Amino acid sequence: MEEKFPRALWVRLLIYIAVGHVFAAFIYLLFEAGAK
User: Fold this and answer.
1) Among 5, 7, 4, 3, which residue's Cα sits nearest to residue 15?
2) How far apart are CA 27 and CA 6, in angstroms?
3) How far apart are the first and last CA of the chain?
4) Residue 11 CB contacts under 8 Å (≥ 6 apart), including other chains
5) Domains in the chain: how many in total?
6) Residue 30 maps to a domain
7) What is the DSSP letter of 5?
8) Position 3 in a domain
């Protein structure tokens, strides 16, 4: 079992996390704007 993760995997993971946060913030803003 390889202990070190390949660099591409870390980059992809960071991109997925960043996109997920942006998407969640966008939906949150939509709900906030819709509630007012």
Assistant:
1) 7
2) 32
3) 53
4) none
5) 1
6) yes
7) P
8) no
Please say if the pLDDT value at position 26 is more than 90.
yes
pLDDT at 36: 79
Q: How far apart are alpha carbons 4 and 31 in whole angstroms?
A: 41
Secondary structure string (H, E, C) spanning the chain = CCCCCCHHHHHHHHHHHHHHHHHHHHHHHHHHHHHC
**pTM exceeds 0.70 for this model:** no
Q: Position 16: which residue type?
A: Y
Instruction: Show the beta-strand stretches assigned E in the chain.
Output: none
Inside any domain, residue 1? no
